[in-house]
Design goal:
This protein has 97 residues and is α+β, with helices and mostly antiparallel strands. It is 25% helix and 20% strand. The chain has one domain (2-96). A hairpin with a 6-residue loop joins strand 2 (37-40) and strand 3.
C-alpha cells in the first residue's frame, strides 16, 4: 500500500508525549517514517516499508507477505491493515527517556 502522509502536529495528535519533550513535527515524522527502506524480518510475516518519491511529498510504502491461504482482498481491509501495520508504529517510551 502507498500512503501520502501529513506532518503530525500537536493539534492533530494532542497529548502525544514527544511534544512535551520539545520534538518538532519533522522530528516526529522522521522517527516514525525513517528515510530509506526497512526490511522487517518478522518470521510470522515478512514485510518491507519505506519512503519514496520527493521528500516534500511524504509518500510511504508498506508491503507485507501473504500466506497461501490468505485472501488479498480481505487482507487489504482497514481492519487487517490496522492489525498488521500499526504494531510497527509503537515505540517503547524508554527510547525517549
Amino acid at each position: 500500500m502507498n500512503w501520502h502522509l501529513k506532518l503530525p502536529t500537536p493539534e492533530s495528535h494532542p497529548g502525544f508525549p514527544l511534544w512535551s519533550l520539545g520534538y518538532t513535527s519533522e522530528q516526529v515524522y522522521d522517527l516514525f517514517f525513517p528515510q530509506g527502506f526497512r526490511f522487517l524480518c518478522n518470521p510470522a510475516r515478512s514485510a518491507v516499508c519505506g519512503r519514496f518519491g520527493l521528500l516534500e511529498d511524504r509518500c510511504w510504502r508498506f508491503e507485507f507477505a501473504l500466506s497461501e491461504d490468505e485472501d488479498g482482498e480481505k487482507m487489504s481491509s482497514p481492519e487487517m491493515i490496522e492489525k498488521i501495520v500499526m504494531p510497527y508504529f509503537r515505540h517503547p517510551g524508554k527510547r525517549y527517556g
